[in-house]
């Protein structure tokens, strides 16, 4: 067992663990590990061969270095015996872990002790798996950070690179693609041991590029330590995750760490908000700037945007008269921003303008469907499932799905996640009341928090906005979530729009430690079909 687990995910992680590392790893002598750590290794143990690294005793494979870290309630050293039984040939821990091992029966493998072993995990993983220098072949890494748009931008990058003939991988919220079958993703960014193992696996399978979502949690929890991205991209920064970062300044500072020489070689930064402009001015790596609104001076600017089907066609105007004509089939101005950022990140990596334009023209790479991201389930009524789970994302999604058809209404179904930033709950309620005609507030993932109390926070914001701003929105409380979705469909007319927001691609709802099967897309399709509405069949999902 290990203290580094995600609730409800251990079984899934164990099931797929073998796919998070390459089949073959050239052994690294323990003496070399000790030298990297500045720790002396006794001569009899110097030739012990390390072929893997793990923080979780249940994912240890023969030849692994088991890293025993302090956890919230137990120390990883408590599970060293399990790790050794699974084949770990050495243990790395701190002083507290060493004392626990000394109090137990004799530990039959070498134990290396450093003050802060967590700081060593990323660099050691890179060293053991040779993740960025496996055989001298470059595997270009694209890292995307920001509050909203990370998932879609990484899918767009992957789709564009494939259109250019590249063999690409993906590490993100929805899934992990390392060639062949997709691996369901349990974290936005996996642990650093898994990240480096995955990149080495991509090398082994002949891939030459990978796009990765880089969340603030990944930076704070050191999940991307030991990685240097060829191009880092920034989407935007809005209120989210303040349960972790406390203030927006701290949140920004964490994101900004990605734009330093130890983590990236160059960057593309969207400067549509103040945070992006600050980042562009303070980044310690070469920066290309992007403005999608034209409100800020930038190297590249979105111009001539015009509707095309559900999406948008636009031009990117750059230095020295350079232009790129781009189309995205996904609705919303934010997907224009995501597509523009993806184009410029690939351009910054060495892509030629003419090759990029040919790929954009012939492959239409940004009409790829991204699971749970502005995913269209029906077009009459327009019924969309989106991951929007904070104030900015919810506002953008509502604006994107609002129909221009006369006498049309916008119905939104959403809630708020338990045990997360409580300050955004009433603000999300108020935004929904301002931008929708019917607001149906329900449950998201309550986790261990009282679901009714969460709904009350969101309801308070919506009802206060209706009263104080004299809004015409109808505000309803309907639960459980599947009943709320059915109620929205029951209210809908063909000319109306329905947005089911907050959970996107997720297929489990966690309530009091129990995972309940719930997929917004399935529930929405079922309800629409029951009403006799046509449901779209979408075969464009990239997997």
UniProtKB/TrEMBL annotation:
<keyword id="KW-0067">ATP-binding</keyword>
<keyword id="KW-0131">Cell cycle</keyword>
<dbReference type="GO" id="GO:0008765">
    <property type="term" value="F:UDP-N-acetylmuramoylalanyl-D-glutamate-2,6-diaminopimelate ligase activity"/>
</dbReference>
<feature type="domain" description="Mur ligase N-terminal catalytic">
    <location>
        <begin position="49"/>
        <end position="97"/>
    </location>
</feature>
<dbReference type="InterPro" id="IPR005761">
    <property type="entry name" value="UDP-N-AcMur-Glu-dNH2Pim_ligase"/>
</dbReference>
<comment type="similarity">
    <text>Belongs to the MurCDEF family. MurE subfamily.</text>
</comment>
<protein>
    <recommendedName>
        <fullName>UDP-N-acetylmuramyl-tripeptide synthetase</fullName>
        <ecNumber>6.3.2.-</ecNumber>
    </recommendedName>
</protein>
<feature type="domain" description="Mur ligase C-terminal">
    <location>
        <begin position="372"/>
        <end position="504"/>
    </location>
</feature>
<dbReference type="InterPro" id="IPR036615">
    <property type="entry name" value="Mur_ligase_C_dom_sf"/>
</dbReference>
<feature type="binding site">
    <location>
        <position position="55"/>
    </location>
    <ligand>
        <name>UDP-N-acetyl-alpha-D-muramoyl-L-alanyl-D-glutamate</name>
    </ligand>
</feature>
<keyword id="KW-0460">Magnesium</keyword>
<keyword id="KW-0573">Peptidoglycan synthesis</keyword>
<feature type="binding site">
    <location>
        <begin position="188"/>
        <end position="189"/>
    </location>
    <ligand>
        <name>UDP-N-acetyl-alpha-D-muramoyl-L-alanyl-D-glutamate</name>
    </ligand>
</feature>
<feature type="binding site">
    <location>
        <position position="223"/>
    </location>
    <ligand>
        <name>UDP-N-acetyl-alpha-D-muramoyl-L-alanyl-D-glutamate</name>
    </ligand>
</feature>
<feature type="binding site">
    <location>
        <position position="57"/>
    </location>
    <ligand>
        <name>UDP-N-acetyl-alpha-D-muramoyl-L-alanyl-D-glutamate</name>
    </ligand>
</feature>
<keyword id="KW-0133">Cell shape</keyword>
<dbReference type="InterPro" id="IPR018109">
    <property type="entry name" value="Folylpolyglutamate_synth_CS"/>
</dbReference>
<comment type="pathway">
    <text>Cell wall biogenesis; peptidoglycan biosynthesis.</text>
</comment>
<keyword id="KW-0961">Cell wall biogenesis/degradation</keyword>
<keyword id="KW-0436">Ligase</keyword>
<feature type="modified residue" description="N6-carboxylysine">
    <location>
        <position position="255"/>
    </location>
</feature>
<keyword id="KW-0963">Cytoplasm</keyword>
<dbReference type="InterPro" id="IPR004101">
    <property type="entry name" value="Mur_ligase_C"/>
</dbReference>
<dbReference type="Pfam" id="PF01225">
    <property type="entry name" value="Mur_ligase"/>
</dbReference>
<feature type="binding site">
    <location>
        <begin position="146"/>
        <end position="152"/>
    </location>
    <ligand>
        <name>ATP</name>
    </ligand>
</feature>
<dbReference type="InterPro" id="IPR000713">
    <property type="entry name" value="Mur_ligase_N"/>
</dbReference>
<feature type="domain" description="Mur ligase central">
    <location>
        <begin position="144"/>
        <end position="345"/>
    </location>
</feature>
<dbReference type="InterPro" id="IPR036565">
    <property type="entry name" value="Mur-like_cat_sf"/>
</dbReference>
<feature type="binding site">
    <location>
        <position position="215"/>
    </location>
    <ligand>
        <name>UDP-N-acetyl-alpha-D-muramoyl-L-alanyl-D-glutamate</name>
    </ligand>
</feature>
<dbReference type="Pfam" id="PF02875">
    <property type="entry name" value="Mur_ligase_C"/>
</dbReference>
<dbReference type="InterPro" id="IPR013221">
    <property type="entry name" value="Mur_ligase_cen"/>
</dbReference>
<feature type="compositionally biased region" description="Basic and acidic residues">
    <location>
        <begin position="11"/>
        <end position="20"/>
    </location>
</feature>
<keyword id="KW-0547">Nucleotide-binding</keyword>
<keyword id="KW-0132">Cell division</keyword>
<dbReference type="Pfam" id="PF08245">
    <property type="entry name" value="Mur_ligase_M"/>
</dbReference>
<comment type="function">
    <text>Catalyzes the addition of an amino acid to the nucleotide precursor UDP-N-acetylmuramoyl-L-alanyl-D-glutamate (UMAG) in the biosynthesis of bacterial cell-wall peptidoglycan.</text>
</comment>
<feature type="region of interest" description="Disordered">
    <location>
        <begin position="1"/>
        <end position="20"/>
    </location>
</feature>
<dbReference type="InterPro" id="IPR035911">
    <property type="entry name" value="MurE/MurF_N"/>
</dbReference>
């Amino acid at each position: 067992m290990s203290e580094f687990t995600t609730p409800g995910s251990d079984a899934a992680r164990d099931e797929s663990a073998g796919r998070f590392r390459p089949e073959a790893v050239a052994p690294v002598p323990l003496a070399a590990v000790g030298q990297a750590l500045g720790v002396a290794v006794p001569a009899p143990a110097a030739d012990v061969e390390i072929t893997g690294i793990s923080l979780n005793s249940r994912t240890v494979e023969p030849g692994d270095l088991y890293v025993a870290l302090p956890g919230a309630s137990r120390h990883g050293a408590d599970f060293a015996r399990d790790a050794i039984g699974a084949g770990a040939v050495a243990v790395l821990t701190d002083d507290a872990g060493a004392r626990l091992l000394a109090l137990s029966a004799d530990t039959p493998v070498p134990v290396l002790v450093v003050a802060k072993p967590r700081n060593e995990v990323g660099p050691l993983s890179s060293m053991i798996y040779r993740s960025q220098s496996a055989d001298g072949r470059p595997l270009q890494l694209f890292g995307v950070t920001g509050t909203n748009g990370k998932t879609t931008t990484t899918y767009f990058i992957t789709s564009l690179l494939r259109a250019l003939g590249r063999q690409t991988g993906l590490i993100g919220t929805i899934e992990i693609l390392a060639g062949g079958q997709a691996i369901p993703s349990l974290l936005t960014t996996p642990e650093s041991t898994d990240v480096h193992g995955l990149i080495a696996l991509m090398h082994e399978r002949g891939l030459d590029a990978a796009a990765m979502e880089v969340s603030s949690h990944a930076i704070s929890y050191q999940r991307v330590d030991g990685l240097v991205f060829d191009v880092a991209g920034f989407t935007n920064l809005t209120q989210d995750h303040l349960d972790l970062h406390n203030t927006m300044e701290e949140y920004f500072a964490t994101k900004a760490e990605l734009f330093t020489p130890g983590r990236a070689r160059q960057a593309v930064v969207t400067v549509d908000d103040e945070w992006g402009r600050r980042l562009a001015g303070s980044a310690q790596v070469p920066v290309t700037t992007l403005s999608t609104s034209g409100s800020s001076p930038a190297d590249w600017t979105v111009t001539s945007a015009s509707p095309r089907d559900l999406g948008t066609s636009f031009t990117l105007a750059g230095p020295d008269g350079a232009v790129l004509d781009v189309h995205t089939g996904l609705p919303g101005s934010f997907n224009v921003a995501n597509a523009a950022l993806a184009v410029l990140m690939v351009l910054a990596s060495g892509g030629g303008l003419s090759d990029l334009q040919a790929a954009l023209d012939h492959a239409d790479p940004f009409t790829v469907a991204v699971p749970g991201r502005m995913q269209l389930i029906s077009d009459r009524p327009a019924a969309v499932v989106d991951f929007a789970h904070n104030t900015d994302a919810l506002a953008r999604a509502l604006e994107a799905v609002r129909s221009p058809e006369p006498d049309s209404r916008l119905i939104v179904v959403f809630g708020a996640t338990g045990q997360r930033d409580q300050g955004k709950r009433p603000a999300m309620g108020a935004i929904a009341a301002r931008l929708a005609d019917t607001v149906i507030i329900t449950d998201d993932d309550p986790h261990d928090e009282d679901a009714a109390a969460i709904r009350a926070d969101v309801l308070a914001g919506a009802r206060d906005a209706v009263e104080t701003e004299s809004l015409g929105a109808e505000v309803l409380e309907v639960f459980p979530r599947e009943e709320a979705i059915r109620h929205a469909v029951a209210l809908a007319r063909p000319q109306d729009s329905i947005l089911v927001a907050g959970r996107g691609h997720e297929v489990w709802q966690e309530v009091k430690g129990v995972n309940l099967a719930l997929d917004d897309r399935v529930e929405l399709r079922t309800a629409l079909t029951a009403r006799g509405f046509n449901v779209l069949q979408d075969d464009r999902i990239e997997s």
